[in-house]
Every structure is written in C-alpha cells, then in structure tokens.
Amino acid sequence: MTLQPLTRPARLRPGARVAIVAPSGSVPAERLETGLELLRGWDLDPVVAPHVLDVHPELDYLAGTDEDRARDLQEAWCDPSVDAVLCARGGYGVPRMVDLLDWPAMRTAGPKAFVGYSDITVLHEAFALRSGFSTLHGPMIATEVFLKDAATQESLRSTLFEPEAVRTLGLGAAAALVPGRARGITYGGCSSLLAADAGTPQARTSARGGLLMLEDITEDPYRLDGILTRLLRMGALDGISGVACGSWEGCGPYEQVRAVLHDRLGGLGIPVVEELGFGHCAAALTIPFGVPAVLEAPSDGGRCTLTTEVPALV
Questions:
Q1: Residue 215: active-site member
Q2: Which position among 24, 118, 155, 241 bears the catalytic label?
C-alpha cells in the first residue's frame, strides 16, 4: 500500500496552551524551566504534565513509570483545552509505554501539533499508523540544543506559527549522495528506533511511496551498517521514493558514515541527500511527517532541498 497524506493539525496562535510531556528519559528541572520561559516568550501558555519531573524508582533513566508517562501523554492529548503537545526530552522509554496508550480515544480527540525526535520516533510512527495524524520531527524543550541554539528555536517557532514560511528546508551543507528528484510522503526519524520498532505488532509493514527522513546519534559505523541492513533485509525500504539524511552526531568519522550510507542506500536506485540539517545537531530543522513533499538532489552540485507541498500545519 502506498503512503497517503496524514491529517494535519492546526497551527498555533498567540496564547495557545501547550502541554509538556516526558514519554522517555528523566528531565533536568533547570533545563525544563528554561525551556518553559522560551515558550512563554513566544506568547504560549505551557502546562507541565504531572509526572514530567518523575524519576523511576529503580530505573533512573526513565521519567517515572511507564503507566504514568503514558497517562500524561494521553490526558494531555484528550484535553480539549490543549492545542499542542511538546516532548521535554528523548532518551529511552517510548517503546515501553506506547502500547499503554488508548489510541482509539486519542484518534477521537483529533490531531494536535506533536513535537519530538530521537526516542520519540516510535510515537511518530504510532501517531501515523494508529491515528492517521501528521507530526513534527523537531526539538524537545529541555534539551541543550533547543535551549542554546537560536536557529533550532526559530525553525520550530516558525513551523508552529507560520508554517507556510518554512516549506522549503535544507541547510547549506546538504549535498546529493545519490542525485535525483523524488516525490513522496515524509516519514522516519532515528534509524535505530525505526529498526527496533520494525516487526512489532503495530509496526509499519510498508513504506511504499515514502520519503524517508533518517538520522541517529552515537551509533558506530558498523552498527549503523547493521541497522540499515536489517531494514533492507526485512523489506522496510522497498518502494520508498527517496532518502534525506540528517545528523549523525557521535557516529564516528563522517567519511566512514558516508561510506556506510552510500553502500547501504545507494543501491536502492533513488535520490539520497546527506546533511539536510535535522536531528541531533545545531541549527536543527523541524520536519513535518505525513505530508507530501519533493526532494531535490541536483547532480550539478546545486542546492539540495526538501519542499513540502502543503504547510506543516493548517
């Protein structure tokens, strides 16, 4: 089955109420407060879910229990006074709680802007497959890259408030690993999370017609090779129209990463862009998932871009 556009949520207006949740790792209180101040500076009204600052009693890498993390997200989503749900940080934990969510109830509540990346990749996939909602691969408000990087902040702010102004995406470093032009529906995220999610009961079985957005952090080249090989062997990349790669922070010398990407993705016969500018990096772009877009990878060394055919939010 070919991927189809997902239902887009509404853009935010001044005074919008946004819920902050922590579906994954434990959250430093001081970073959270700094992030909240930034949101207030955008004339948003952030509300922190009850368990965001919790720490699991035995597994301190988790922001509280699976049940409480799931409850926070579900209650925020189903609260009609909440206009958007933003994640505080990634880390690890979403695969433990994603199946505890009442997806029919969340689907009934309708779409909202949802922002996160890294471990949040599993929720991007779940919102797409179980609710049919478009989401935003963007920064989390209690992370250093969001708190310290003005370009990352502005990409998210523009996407939330003025999405028609940021339809063409791509930093100057973006280059054609495999030249070409492709059209498809955006999806993806952290490569290791996509591979870990693959084969689970509610996972994606086909991405035909998809434009894959791919990035990761601290995966050595041989491990990245294994991740991409798993996706290839199970047919998860069959029929995709193009690939846009973001950052590979801490994944070893980039020359080795590039060699792996070219070796594993170059044989697909589709355009592949490297260093588009999203993920675990400074100046990280906010990328909408579930929207039709065109990936340009000129063979003459021209600018490589991802242009959405519609704004990220309505």
A1: yes
A2: 118
124 is catalytic: no
Give the integer Cα–Cα distance in Å for 291 and 188.
12
Residue written as token pair 């009204």? 45
- Catalytic residue, candidates 215, 219, 274, 296: 215
Measured distance CA(98)–CA(130) in Å, rounded: 11
Give pTM, 2 decimals: 0.97
Q: How many CB atoms lie within 10 A of CB 127?
A: 27
Amino acid at 183: R
Give the Cα separation of 180 and 177 in Å (integer): 10
Condensed to tens digits (0 to 9), the pLDDT of residues 146-169 reads: 999 999 999 999 999 999 999 999
Which stretches within 1-91 are classed as H helix?
A: 29-41, 66-78
| pLDDT tens digits, 63-109 | 999 999 999 999 999 999 999 999 999 999 999 999 999 999 999 99
Residue 125: closest CA among 149, 146, 105, 99: 99
118 catalytic residue (yes or no)? yes
3-class DSSP state of 285: coil
Q: What is the pLDDT of residues 217-240, one digit of tens each?
A: 999 999 999 999 999 999 999 999
